[in-house]
TrEMBL record:
Residues annotated for Mg(2+) binding in this entry: 66, 81, 84, 212
UniProt GO MF annotations: inositol monophosphate 1-phosphatase activity; metal ion binding
Key words of the record: Hydrolase, Magnesium, Metal-binding
Lineage top rank: taxon: Bacteria
Originating organism: Amycolatopsis orientalis (Nocardia orientalis)
UniProt cross-references to Pfam families, sorted A to Z: Inositol_P
Protein name in the entry: Inositol monophosphatase
Length: 262
């Protein structure tokens, strides 16, 4: 049986180390890694340090990092985004974070997200609740979309982006006429952590890169929210999208998204 308490301690230590590196590297270079995508020296330094730490502390667990790919166990593995929100970070916008989730089969069971410039660390373990520091989190209790602040994930880049972004434009039109406010934060880790924290009522991320999402998905679920795919089915690591929402808004939000996809 996986010892979630022990592994959560490892995850906390890993994101604390990453936060120290991010705060200490006051100068860095930025390089292109694809169409309108980038990587910094900091992303690489954090991922390398965290991978080394996790390989030493949990050698039986694999790891998937955004910058270096997958190594080791494919059934039980860490999902790491060393700097989620690199575009924000590179411009000095403090909305970025380190995201580390433990994926067991199709779902995450341990999570730690550190927001280095907002001085908060979010943690969760399966069945143990979600926390910001020592504060136990509770997702939104809103029941009307007209009362909801909803964040939307980044527009697509790279191959096929034009077609994918037509759906995103339709989503903005659909939600813009129904919700209280729409927000673009530029970091899936923050989107999901803030749904867990009740700062956002929902987030709609029309993608599901495990390093971006798996830690935050567990936070939302442990805070009493729900996370689904575009069809309303339960979110897993194989889902096409990541839609996190307070339970009272689930049906209305899924219906709105279905109209866009229809």
């Amino acid at each position: 049986m996986t010892d979630h308490a022990a592994l959560l301690s490892v995850a906390r230590e890993a994101v604390a180390m990453a936060t120290g590196i991010i705060r200490s590297m006051t100068s860095f270079s930025v390089a292109a890694k694809g169409d309108r995508d980038m990587v910094t020296d900091v992303d690489l330094a954090v991922e390398d340090a965290v991978r080394e730490f996790l390989a030493r502390e949990t050698p039986e667990i694999g790891i998937l990092g955004e910058e270096r790919g997958h190594a080791g166990n494919e059934d039980l593995w860490w999902a790491l985004d060393p700097v989620d929100g690199t575009a924000n970070f590179a411009r000095g916008i403090p909305l970025c974070g380190v995201s580390l989730g433990l994926v067991d089969g199709l779902k995450s069971t341990v999570a730690a997200i550190s927001l280095p410039f907002l001085d908060v660390t979010y943690t969760a373990a399966e069945g143990q609740g979600a926390y910001a520091g020592e504060e136990r989190l509770e997702a939104s209790k809103a029941t009307k979309l007209s009362d909801a602040i909803v964040s939307v994930g980044d527009f697509a880049v790279g191959e096929g982006a034009e077609v994918k972004n037509r759906v995103r434009m339709a989503l903005l039109a659909e939600l813009g006429g129904r919700v209280q406010r729409i927000r673009f934060l530029g970091s899936a880790a923050i989107d999901l952590a803030w749904v867990a924290h009740g700062k956002l009522d929902a987030t709609v991320i029309l993608a599901n890169k495990p390093w971006d999402t798996m830690a935050g998905v567990l936070l939302v679920r442990e805070a009493g929210g729900v996370v689904v795919d575009t069809d309303g089915g339960e979110h897993t690591v194989r889902s096409a999208a990541t839609i996190a929402v307070g339970a009272g808004l689930r049906d209305d939000l899924v219906e709105a998204i279905a109209r866009v996809h229809g």
